[in-house]
Every structure is written in structure tokens, then in C-alpha cells.
């Protein structure tokens, strides 16, 4: 059964594209056929993070408008044969995305992939609403600071109102992915604590990604962090998050806190 | 500049902000507009004056149109004496600065059937000059098939940033938090079983006995019967506490709940 996931946040720069690439690669490493789809038409970045920027011939807009077949636009990853990229167009803008076109593309992807991960653009406009429209599950990427948390709250409201699932009266599954978490700064009170964010957003926690230079380094190398260095802290955190997405029970680790507390927290939130 | 202004302001009575709801007629144009306008003209010919002086809301939900299309349509409607007070269901980008404002949160209130115009009769009456014979007004029958007004609603989910819960009919109970940037507007009282971080406006249609209750007060704005209070005017000892807010005369009072 194919599962469509939207990675969204409202606010820009919180790590949607990085998380899309890292989760996509981690799911593909499990041997499941995965495609990452860039919805950020006009400001595409996922191709860079995936290291496929020089391999883009056709893009999402070409497929949506019927100028290219889906198979022509899909780019297979050079490191993982189960991982594919559907890039966005850089020369067009979001008005070129049509609701019917996007639905057609997603339906076609459902036929041949286990996981379809849609990288949403920032904002709450056309690009973002079309990226979330056909999703089964949403991963809400949030940084531990007030503006990001409020924007995420807004996006959660839209996920419950503007998606196909919501319109059919079903509940959209939503998960919180807390990124760029710095335990030292949270302890000093410069950042919101995990509990504060969970209290405000009240959706289950998928994972906490520690702030790390490894993430930036991997992006600049054109590699998802889960492929670049499998043993670094963010890679482990993303891999655990991917396992939770796939339905596995993995104990939650909050960077910088003792294990007993982590289990307690996860136990409570998972209920 | 602002300093002198503040000095001359001797009357410090607060300005009251009140909500009021009106029944507007919603027109839902269909593409192509030329065709739809023709049908509208036909309707108008059969019941003259139907649109005259009535508040009209234009619902363009789901129509793939540009700002220019919308402008042209508004122009066409203007020529027909249809005054559009607001636009519903449009993308913000297609509503230009000189157009009626975007409206949201509308609730359906049944269909409105325009009555066929009794024009011949009216004309007859006019020629007869019979002043004593009451001229039947071409008033359309407004049928409101609303279910009997319920006095309260319960929202079983948190109210997210950017959402508004508007319920002029009565009380609102929320089983969750109201986020920063969200608002709850109730004709009656507001009960929040969570943290109030956004705005709560109780007694919005003129009900001074309405109250606001919340488990934890972090509100951006509190209002009862049009009188409002900003966080800076609130007693800091109530912050983060379970609080009840009510109106005593023209003063908003708050008290910690046990």
C-alpha cells in the first residue's frame, strides 16, 4: 500500500527539504521503493540536497501539464536503487500547478511506489496547499522557537481543513518532527523545550533532530544526511523517525537528557 | 507628535467593538461569465429590483479566474446595479486593492427564491392612481431553512492559529487550547478546557452577562460585549492561571478559579 507523506511547516528555513531527503533515503535504505517529490516550483532545492541537480531533464510541471511522461521525469538515485526524485521546475512558478494535474501525478506514483514524500514549499499558498492535498500523513517540521511553532500550528489547522482526507471527513495523521534542537540552549531557556512545543501543538512526536554541522555538510555535498554519514547523531535520529513512520516502536531519545526520562516522555506522548 | 495627541485625549472611554451578523445574498457565478450574466439578466428581468440595495456576496470558490476576470465581472455586475459587498472563496492574490474585501467564515442560511415580478399589477395600480390600494411590494420571499437555533456548540479539537470559531447564537466550549493567532467569537460565554493563547470575544452580539473561562490564561485579547482588554492591561498575577473573566458595568473583571 503506497503511502503519501507531506513534509510541511509553514515557516521557511526550518528544514523541510533536508528532512524530506533524509527521511526518503532512510525509508529507501529499508528496501522500500521511495520517491521524493519537490513541490517548491520556482525555488527548487531538493535536487541539490539529493545531488541530482545536473541530471534534471523533465520536471513536475512538465508531467502535470502533460509535456512529459512520469517515467521521463523520475531520476533514480546513484547510491540507492530504491530511491527516486521528481524535481520541481525552476523556471516556472506555482500557478503552473493544477489541482487535477497534481492528483493525476500522485495517483500514478501510488501505483509503483511504497512511499511518496512531498516536499512542501514554505507558506500557506497554492504550492503548499497542493502539496498537502493528497497526503495520507503529514510530517510537520518545527524548530524550537515561537514563530516556527505558531506557523506549524497554522499549518496543522490547514491540514485539518484543506486536504482531501479532511474533506472526506477522515482524520489526517500528523507527526511532529522537531529539528535543529540544541539541548544546551533549551536548558538555558534560549529555545523552547520539547515539552513546551508538544503542549502547544498537541500532535504526536516523530523525532527530535539535534542541531549539527553534519546536516549542513551533507547538504553541501549533495547527499541526504542519512546517506552521507550513517553514524552521526542527526542521521541516527532521522533513521529512527523513518522507522516510526513505518509503524515500528522505537524509543524516543531527547538529545542531552537521561534515558529514563526519554522513555517516560515517549510513553506518555505515544498514548 | 504622538505625545501631544495623547495629551489632548481627555476622554478615555474605550471604543466598543461589536459583532453583528446580517443575511447577505450569495451569488455564485459560473464560467463562462457571459453565459451566466445572460441568465442573471433574465432573472433580473423577471423580478426587477431584486438586487437593488441588497448586500451581495460573490462566491468564486473553485473558479479558475485571474484578477482581470474578476475585475471585469465586478464591472459587469456594477452596470446591472448589483453591489458586491464582499468576495468569498477567492485566492487573496486575485482580489485587487479597489475590490470588495475577502470574506470567510460564512454559514449557509437556506436558498432565497426571487418571486416573479408582479409588474403588470403594479403598473395597473400606478395608472389607476389608486393610492389607497396597497401596491404589492416586489419583495422576494426570504426563506431561511435554518434548524432551530442551538444555544451552544462544543469544539472537540484545539483551535489552531489562523482559525476563527464564530458562533453568535450562544456559548462555545472548546476541549483543547486556543492557539496564538486564533480567535473565538461567541454570542454567549466561552469555556476553554486548555490554554487560551489567542483571542476570546464573548457576548459579541451585545450580551454583557457573557463570561470567559479558561484553564490557563495567556490571551492576546479578551473582550466581553465589545469591551476589550489587551495583555498589558491584565493583572500579571492571572497569567498562566485558571481564570474567569466577566463584566461589571464597563469594567472587565478577572478572578482566579480554584
Automatic annotation (TrEMBL), chain A:
<comment type="function">
    <text>ATPase required for the correct placement of the division site. Cell division inhibitors MinC and MinD act in concert to form an inhibitor capable of blocking formation of the polar Z ring septums. Rapidly oscillates between the poles of the cell to destabilize FtsZ filaments that have formed before they mature into polar Z rings.</text>
</comment>
<keyword id="KW-0067">ATP-binding</keyword>
<protein>
    <recommendedName>
        <fullName>Septum site-determining protein MinD</fullName>
    </recommendedName>
</protein>
<feature type="domain" description="CobQ/CobB/MinD/ParA nucleotide binding">
    <location>
        <begin position="5"/>
        <end position="225"/>
    </location>
</feature>
<dbReference type="InterPro" id="IPR027417">
    <property type="entry name" value="P-loop_NTPase"/>
</dbReference>
<keyword id="KW-0132">Cell division</keyword>
<keyword id="KW-0717">Septation</keyword>
<keyword id="KW-0131">Cell cycle</keyword>
<keyword id="KW-0547">Nucleotide-binding</keyword>
<comment type="subunit">
    <text>Interacts with MinC and FtsZ.</text>
</comment>
<dbReference type="InterPro" id="IPR025501">
    <property type="entry name" value="MinD_FleN"/>
</dbReference>
<dbReference type="InterPro" id="IPR050625">
    <property type="entry name" value="ParA/MinD_ATPase"/>
</dbReference>
<dbReference type="InterPro" id="IPR010223">
    <property type="entry name" value="MinD"/>
</dbReference>
<dbReference type="Pfam" id="PF01656">
    <property type="entry name" value="CbiA"/>
</dbReference>
<comment type="similarity">
    <text>Belongs to the ParA family. MinD subfamily.</text>
</comment>
<dbReference type="InterPro" id="IPR002586">
    <property type="entry name" value="CobQ/CobB/MinD/ParA_Nub-bd_dom"/>
</dbReference>
Automatic annotation (TrEMBL), chain B:
<feature type="domain" description="Septum formation inhibitor MinC C-terminal">
    <location>
        <begin position="154"/>
        <end position="253"/>
    </location>
</feature>
<dbReference type="InterPro" id="IPR007874">
    <property type="entry name" value="MinC_N"/>
</dbReference>
<feature type="compositionally biased region" description="Low complexity">
    <location>
        <begin position="120"/>
        <end position="132"/>
    </location>
</feature>
<dbReference type="InterPro" id="IPR036145">
    <property type="entry name" value="MinC_C_sf"/>
</dbReference>
<protein>
    <recommendedName>
        <fullName>Probable septum site-determining protein MinC</fullName>
    </recommendedName>
</protein>
<dbReference type="InterPro" id="IPR016098">
    <property type="entry name" value="CAP/MinC_C"/>
</dbReference>
<dbReference type="InterPro" id="IPR005526">
    <property type="entry name" value="Septum_form_inhib_MinC_C"/>
</dbReference>
<comment type="function">
    <text>Cell division inhibitor that blocks the formation of polar Z ring septums. Rapidly oscillates between the poles of the cell to destabilize FtsZ filaments that have formed before they mature into polar Z rings. Prevents FtsZ polymerization.</text>
</comment>
<comment type="subunit">
    <text>Interacts with MinD and FtsZ.</text>
</comment>
<comment type="similarity">
    <text>Belongs to the MinC family.</text>
</comment>
<keyword id="KW-0132">Cell division</keyword>
<feature type="region of interest" description="Disordered">
    <location>
        <begin position="96"/>
        <end position="132"/>
    </location>
</feature>
<dbReference type="InterPro" id="IPR013033">
    <property type="entry name" value="MinC"/>
</dbReference>
<dbReference type="Pfam" id="PF05209">
    <property type="entry name" value="MinC_N"/>
</dbReference>
<dbReference type="Pfam" id="PF03775">
    <property type="entry name" value="MinC_C"/>
</dbReference>
<feature type="domain" description="Septum formation inhibitor MinC N-terminal">
    <location>
        <begin position="15"/>
        <end position="83"/>
    </location>
</feature>
<keyword id="KW-0131">Cell cycle</keyword>
<keyword id="KW-0717">Septation</keyword>
